[in-house]
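stage 2 :: seqdesign
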């Protein structure tokens, strides 16, 4: 297999030794090194702190190797600083790491080496990790995370509903999946009126993208992703700072696409259906308005309290359609609410589920894989915040209370009680550069979702 950015083959690379230490293991490691190494570390003040790195001097004035300090050795991001903290040459792991730590190193190195290069090249190349054998599962997960980052980082001009469709078509062709697309006014005739209402004002037609893959005898999982390719807020216009990064409002779709692609790449014994309602929430003469009543596929009428709560409106049609298929499991990803960020911050997606076992499995996988998320209560009494005087339900209300919960309760209205379902409210974004996490698009809860699906596949 071809190696991604930041990696080299040990058979071809002139690699220097790379030592991985923690604060606790540094003393034992340095006691086995020549005396000059210890003196060099002391002179540089290197103590094995997390996210530290240092090169070791050679007798000829060159570099003899490198040492990186990590904290949690099972956290991929613990290694994410290394590719740009070290010189742009190849390094090979010296000594042994447990298999799970070695996999975390490979995944974290790839995440740290990532830069979005569509419009400009980085100022320098990353250091390369020379490996004898790539861990196929770790590299597939790395590719999925890179897929999310690339999709989210791409501006809407080049990643609108039509380009999302193209990405899905390319993936389907590669894995022998089937693609169905309902777009424009066909959304009305085929009973997806809510998707149409939100996206009708854009010059690019709204659509529902469906990808189907897998053996009919395998457990069926439907994965839904919110694909609002840009969100102006609609007629309830966002302020400039709130609109600035709204190319990321298709982050849920990016996660769903990447997860489906990962399942197919690893050939999990599952039958998957990917659903992406893809729209732009634009302003125009036919933009949907506050106070309108929108029909939905389920037959539930929705009063539009706020056009900036559009994601839940497109998702309700997609979730209804997903539930009609009666899958064993229904997952959805959405950059749904700012309230989730107020509650849990940018790094911790909010998990809602109507099934305790599914929620616990996803949560436990996140903790084990250092891909964390946090379960929030699907507190149905808060539906009182979505009461409409003219329709069955409103998409919002005047209260600022429990905004993330009320959004999940709204979605719950469109999922049958017997359908196992989990919803992840993701930020999909890094506001600032951090080790392994460059500013821009980010995958969150994706690796944990993959582990959840492996459990459901029995592998």
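stage 2 :: out
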């Amino acid at each position: 297999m071809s190696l991604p950015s930041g990696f080299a083959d040990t058979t071809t690379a002139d690699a220097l030794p790379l030592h991985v230490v923690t604060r606790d293991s540094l003393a034992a490691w340095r006691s086995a090194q020549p005396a000059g190494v210890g003196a060099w570390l002391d002179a540089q003040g290197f103590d094995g702190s997390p996210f530290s790195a240092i090169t070791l001097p050679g007798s000829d004035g060159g570099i003899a190797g490198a040492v990186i300090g990590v904290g949690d050795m099972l956290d991929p991001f613990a290694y994410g600083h290394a590719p740009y903290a070290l010189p742009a040459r190849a390094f090979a792991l010296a000594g042994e790491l447990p298999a799970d730590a070695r996999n975390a190193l490979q995944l974290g190195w790839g995440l740290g080496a990532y830069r979005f290069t569509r419009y400009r090249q980085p100022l320098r190349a990353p250091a390369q990790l020379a490996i004898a054998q790539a861990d196929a599962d770790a590299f597939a997960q790395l590719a999925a995370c890179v897929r999310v980052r690339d999709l989210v980082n791409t501006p809407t001009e080049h990643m609108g509903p039509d380009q999302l469709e193209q990405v899905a078509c390319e993936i389907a062709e590669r894995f022998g999946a089937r693609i169905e697309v309902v777009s424009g006014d066909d959304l009305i005739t085929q009973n997806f009126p809510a998707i149409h209402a939100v996206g009708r004002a854009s010059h690019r037609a709204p659509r529902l993208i469906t990808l189907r893959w897998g053996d009919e005898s395998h457990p069926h999982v439907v994965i839904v992703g919110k694909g609002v390719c840009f969100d102006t807020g609609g007629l309830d216009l966002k302020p400039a700072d709130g609109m600035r990064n709204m190319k990321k409002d298709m982050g849920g779709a990016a996660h769903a696409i990447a997860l489906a692609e990962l399942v197919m790449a690893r050939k999990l014994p599952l039958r998957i259906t990917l659903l992406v309602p893809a729209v732009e929430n634009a302003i125009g003469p036919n933009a949907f308005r506050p106070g309108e009543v929108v029909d939905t596929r389920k037959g539930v009428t929705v009063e539009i309290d706020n056009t900036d709560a559009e994601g839940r409106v497109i998702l309700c049609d997609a979730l209804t359609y997903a539930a009609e298929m009666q899958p064993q499991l229904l997952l959805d990803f959405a950059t749904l609410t700012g309230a989730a960020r107020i509650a849990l911050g940018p790094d911790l997606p909010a998990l809602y589920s109507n099934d305790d076992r599914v929620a616990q499995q996803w949560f436990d996988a996140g903790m084990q894989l250092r891909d964390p998320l946090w379960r929030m209560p699907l507190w149905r009494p808060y539906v009182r915040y979505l009461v409409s005087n003219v329709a069955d339900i409103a998409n919002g209300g005047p209260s600022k209370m429990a905004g993330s919960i009320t959004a999940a309760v709204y979605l719950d209205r469109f999922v049958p009680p017997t359908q196992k379902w989990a919803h992840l409210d993701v930020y999909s974004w890094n506001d600032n550069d951090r080790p392994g996490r460059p500013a821009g698009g980010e995958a969150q809860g994706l690796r944990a979702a993959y582990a959840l699906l492996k459990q459901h596949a029995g592998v």
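stage 3 :: structure notes
- The longest helix spans residues 136-153.
- The chain has a mean pLDDT of 96.
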